[in-house]
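Methods: example folding runs. The two proteins below were folded one after another, and each record is reproduced exactly as written to the output file, sequence line first and structure-token line second.
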Amino acid sequence: MEPEPIGHYKTLDQHQSPPPHQLQGQEPQQQPQSQQQPQFQQQPQFQQQPQFQQQPQFQQQPQYQQQPQFQQSHYQQIAITAPETNATIALVLSILGLVGSFIYGLGICLAIPSLILANGALAITNQYPNHPDAGSAKAAKVISWITIIFFVVAIVTVVLAGVLYVWAASLAETP
């Protein structure tokens, strides 16, 4: 059978298959051409895979002499612990101060002590690299300064509003 050029397809009715007697070794049966069903070849049977021989045995590894024992030193490792700080207390006070700054500016009463505690904690944490309280102390300092700035802006706004009110009232009285 010659190979077909690429791009040409045959439909199932046009498919030519060998007669059934060539596949099964039987005589051909006469069927009308319109009722013949295409016969497909059986898949080839594969031979059984070969059995591999047992893997070769290797010689046993040589035994090495035991390493000499060294004397253990009696020095103990000294664990350096970081000193305690008030960074957590400063952080709590600064957050409460920030919330309190929106309630008549009372947050300044907590922001100033928080800033003092945060500076003390930062003085300790800067002496010890990777101190666990360093982040809390920095956060407390930043939040305290934000609270103090809110308080100053609120005071300046209230004073300016009072000055503008007095000035506007004095303009309204003069004819």
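Second run, written to the same file directly after the first:
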Amino acid sequence: MTKTPMTKALNKLSRRAYSKYELEKSLLSSGFAKEEVEQVITRLCEWGYINDKKMAEDLFSYYLRIKYFGPLMIRKKMLQKGIPESYIAEILLEYDEDKQTEMARELAEKYLNKKKVADKEALKYSLARYLLRKGFLQNNILKVISQVFTELDSTYNKD
């Protein structure tokens, strides 16, 4: 039994949400004609089965609350999924600098609780690399490192 592009698309969408880009790429790689794929994508959008804006909102929530990603990593992951830049920019407006700093600080505190390194400078460098990999901006990383290590120094100086 040969599958139609619509059947294949609905089968894929029954398991998880796909962006237009992801679904189109998948259907084209399955050997379906570009015209057929475009018709299927258009129909699925009309029916509301594909909604890149909704998917961007859901991804943002997931990346923020579960993965603790910074804005750079969120943008990168969404672009990989084919979310239009306009939707990404709109959603990242919600991720203001205070929220970014707060998230980076939470991650830094968790990270420092796990690490037991005697060399303070090596620990700062290690923490900065970790936060960069998570997609945080350099100015937020420097601010968080300064805050966290100032607090650590004051805690140790009280003893």
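Comment on the second run: The mean pLDDT is 91.
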